[in-house]
Amino acid sequence: MAGRDPLAPLSTLVDVVFALIVTFALFSAVVTGLHLFGKADGAQLFSFSDHVCVEAESFMASVGEDDAPAEPLAKPGSSLQTSGTMFCTQNPSWAMQWAASVGSILSMMLLIGACLLARRVIRAARRDGIFTAVPAKLTRTLGWFLIAMAFIAPVGTDIGNGIFMASAAAPVLELAWTMEVTSIGGPDWTPLILGICALTFSRVMYRGAALQDDVALTI
Amino acid sequence: MTNDHRVTVHLDSLLEERGMTLTELADRIGITLANASILKNGRARAIRFSTLTAICDVLQCQPGDLLQVDER
Q: Across-strand partners of B67?
């Protein structure tokens, strides 16, 4: 076990994710190119499409009895509940497409940013050693990035969805874009926990760097 | 990096008295010239008993001849 490369699992994961991101970017470029030449009707990249739907979390439309299905969709003793209401728009404006895409774009930014920062940490750790100042500092940056995105991503998604729904909803609903923001369910827990882990490991690395200096200067 | 000790290493004067070079000392006690240089220039954080024993054997001295704690 002692001879194994401690960075190998993370390095492999980051390489795989990075390859997927590059593949996605190439695929997106092809789709965008085809769409520009009018050869990819119905294609969808994030929420850039001719038909865009966004699920509302702050607003739920009641379904009248006339709309209820003729036959029950759940077995006796079970019930079927819709989690939200979908607002769909045919031929949305660019602004609406951008608003609906904010969540996906922020998620992609989180993935790409975390991936690039993790690659920098791995490279620095391979060059200088794990318990040195530079990888420790980069790990700290990665931690703060993940923590920041854990809050920015859900808020940005809700703002984007709120703007889309405010544009799509009829005036009678009196939907303001802020309604979706005020219904925030909390941070994105996975990047938050990973960010705190990265910050903690960064502090361990700083402590290790000090010990490494002591060892190096013990004759 | 601040020094949190007042220990001075008198390796250079001992070497001069014995007419020995730092390279020769490093060879005889089995440490690298870089480490011997760190010790001589007072940049070492600590010295192992084994290294101290080897230096004292080669230079025929006592630890007190090599190390000194300066006044405050």
A: B9
User: Top-level CATH class of B7-69?
Assistant: mainly alpha
Decide if pLDDT at A101 tops 70.
Answer: yes
Long-range pairs for A7-10: beta carbons < 8 A, 24 or more residues apart: A7/A122, A7/A125, A7/A126, A7/A130, A10/A118, A10/A122
User: Which chain A residue lies closest to B54 (C-alpha atoms)?
Assistant: A219
- Cβ separation B39–A214 shorter than 8 A: no
- In this complex, which of B1, B36, B46 lies closest to A218 when CB atoms are compared? B46
Per CB distance under 8 Å, which residues of A are interface residues toward B? 213-214, 217-219
Measured between CB atoms, which of A213, A214, A219 is closest to B35? A219
Question: What ipTM did this prediction achieve?
Answer: 0.78
Domain ranges of chain A: 8-57+84-216
Predicted confidence band of residue A127 (pLDDT cuts 50, 70, 90): very high
* pLDDT band at residue A123 using 50, 70 and 90 as cut-offs: very high
